[in-house]
Amino acid sequence: MATTDHKPRINKIKAIKELVEGQECASKLQFLLHNPSQQHASASVGEDLVLKILKSFSQTLSVLSSSDSESFMEASANSPDDSPSDESSESRKRAPPKDRRGCYKRKRNAQTWTVVSPTTEDGHAWRKYGQKAILNSKHPRSYFRCTRKYDQGCGATKQVQRKEDDPQMYQTTYIGVHTCKETGKAPPIVPDSSSWDWEPINPPKQQEPEDPAVMWKDLAMGFGSSDAAIKMGDIDDEVSCKSLEMDSMVRSAGFYSNFHFDESDEFPQGL
DNA sequence: AGGATTTGACCGAT
DNA sequence: ATCGGTCAAATCCT
């Protein structure tokens, strides 16, 4: 279980690399937006940049949290997989319950971080597996897992809920890191420019999205600005994270993030 | 037909 | 007992 000493350093380098890439993409995007004449010709380029930026966030978070996530990955790798008593149901009523005691575990110590954004899109492929009404919340919470959970044992999940005070915004809590590889099938769910939309889980049909250019610009500026802020801790307890509180917000057109990690991993202070 | 979503039940934590 | 997270059958969608 002991992790090597140099691993945090390697992760730090990787994280910085990811952030630099994201920053470069943001700069390109900004340039694109400052040159409207090129903008129409390169709409897909802009989308691509946005995707890259989002992925940069995701990858960075994965890298930063990977060094103390082995146990989590192991836990998620051996899925419950109860033996399927495959009987075609004879009625619409729920079949007699199987004994599901101990059939799943909660990821109490998984890394979590929260992102608030007008879109739930993040470049990963997710599969919805549940929705719950939450006490004192007007909006239900939706539960997603990585589509490669069984494919590659990826244990990443996320929870999406509309913001109470701003229903246009979605608060997405990511739990666990992606251990899957994105290569090959099931590409990210970002559509081409003709069908780009910023819509949520249950999108109202044909709602006109905001001008993507404005949002890209905001995103680019938010990413590029040095006061981008990340807050880390653990969602499960009130233990404030000892490692780091980069308590600035990526605040641009409502984009901001609130990242939660637990204190078990050393976080580079110099980022 | 096969994959994705919906939704009520089950289960662990508090 | 209650709440929130997950499971899995039923249903929907492509």
Automatic annotation (TrEMBL):
Print the keywords alphabetically: DNA-binding, Nucleus, Transcription, Transcription regulation
Main location class: nucleus
Q: Which residues form the WRKY domain?
A: 115-178
Ranges of biased composition (kind: Low complexity): 72-82
Pfam families, per database record? WRKY (PF03106)
Q: Where in the cell is it found?
A: Nucleus
User: Which region ranges are annotated with the description Disordered?
Assistant: 72-111
Cellular component terms, GO, for this chain's entry?
nucleus
Segments of skewed composition (Basic and acidic residues): 89-102
SUPFAM superfamilies from the xrefs? WRKY DNA-binding domain (SSF118290)
From the Swiss-Prot or TrEMBL record, what is one GO molecular function term? sequence-specific DNA binding
Keyword Methyltransferase carried by entry: no
Which PANTHER family would you find in this protein's record? WRKY TRANSCRIPTION FACTOR 21-RELATED
Name of the protein in its database record: WRKY domain-containing protein
What is the taxonomic lineage of the source species? Eukaryota, Viridiplantae, Streptophyta, Embryophyta, Tracheophyta
